[in-house]
Amino acid sequence: MQVTLRIRRYNPEHDREPHWEEYRLQADPTDRVLDLLNRVKWEVDGTLAYRRSCAHGVCGSDAMIINGKARLACKTLVKELSQPITVEPMRGFRVKKDLIVDFTGFFAAYRSIKPYLINNDPEPERERLQSPHDRERFDDTTKCILCGCCTTSCPSFWANPDYVGPAAIVNAHRFIFDSRDQAADERLRILNSRDGVWRCRTIFNCTEACPRGIEVTRAIQEVKRAILLGQR
User: Fold this and answer.
1) Are 149 and 70 in contact (CB under 8 A)?
2) Nearest CA to 195 among 103, 115, 107, 109?
3) Which strands form 63-66's sheet, in the order they lie side by side?
4) In the CATH scheme, what is the code of domain 2-101?
5) What is the pLDDT of residue 232?
6) How far is CA 85 from CA 35, 116, 146, in A?
7) For the chain, where do the domains classified as CATH 1.10.1060.10 start and end?
8) Using CA atoms, how far apart are residues 65 and 45, in angstroms rounded to an integer?
9) Which domain of life does the protein's organism represent (predicted)?
């Protein structure tokens, strides 16, 4: 089958504004959008810039806006999309070139919530054990791959790039509710701020966009409740 692929392109070296470029390609229904982008780069125009790595929905590096929605190019099939297929860089981020955006602020927000286990007790002889019930409390939010689909789908982030964003809150949730961690109160204080968790307006775009099926809005609400009740 023949498909039309429209890519929003921008090269800061010679473009004043982004513009659309269109490509006619042969494709199979089971081809992924990443396959189409690779075909353009390898066979048509080697200057096309985009991120990709594992190509199996694990690394999250090829998140972009496909037909108006945040998706992973490596997980989105041609047969799932209407024509023409449009591909744009993620919203709310500064575009560096074509489909590559600046994730500096995104990862700064991620680092700000201390996304690692903090436990100051003496190191045990074995691993720090945890019951299945305690693990289940935060199991959903361990699935985050930091693709940014939730954050780029969030109107609060579009309006205020200083908002810590749903991805950072999801990763804070993963440790706040970990029974082995001792820094929950510190993370809750960080998120109980002007640009913290209260910027969320419970729109559910983030949950719909998550390629891993994480209940992002629910996790954010649980963090809000923990702040209000002063408990995990």
Assistant:
1) yes
2) 109
3) 19-26, 2-9, 85-88, 63-66, 69-72
4) 3.10.20.30
5) 57
6) 13, 39, 25
7) 104-229
8) 20
9) Bacteria
Determine the straight-line distance between the first and last CA of the chain, rounded to whole angstroms: 53
pTM: predicted TM-score of the whole model, two decimal places: 0.93
CA separation for the pair 134, 211 (Å, rounded): 25
Q: Choose the CATH number for 104-229 among 3.40.190.10, 1.20.140.10, 2.60.40.10, 1.10.1060.10.
A: 1.10.1060.10
What are 118-173's pLDDT values in tens digits? 999 998 988 999 999 999 999 999 999 999 999 999 999 999 999 999 999 999 99
Q: Which residues contact 177 (CB under 8 A, 6 or more apart)?
A: 137, 138, 184, 222, 226, 232
E strands in the chain: 2-9, 19-26, 63-66, 69-72, 85-88, 95-97, 100-101
Q: For residues 153 and 163, give the distance between their C-alpha atoms in angstroms, rounded to a whole number.
A: 13
Summarised one tens digit per residue, pLDDT across range 193-226 is: 999 999 999 999 999 999 999 999 999 999 999 9
**Mean pLDDT across the stretch 93-119?**
97
Within 10 angstroms of residue 98's Cβ, the number of other Cβ atoms is 24
Q: Which two tokens stand for residue 147?
A: 């693709």
List, for residues 15-54, the tens digit of each pLDDT value: 999 999 999 999 999 999 999 999 999 999 999 999 999 9
Which of 195, 201, 203, 116 shows the shortest CA–CA distance to 162? 195
Return the pLDDT at 230: 76
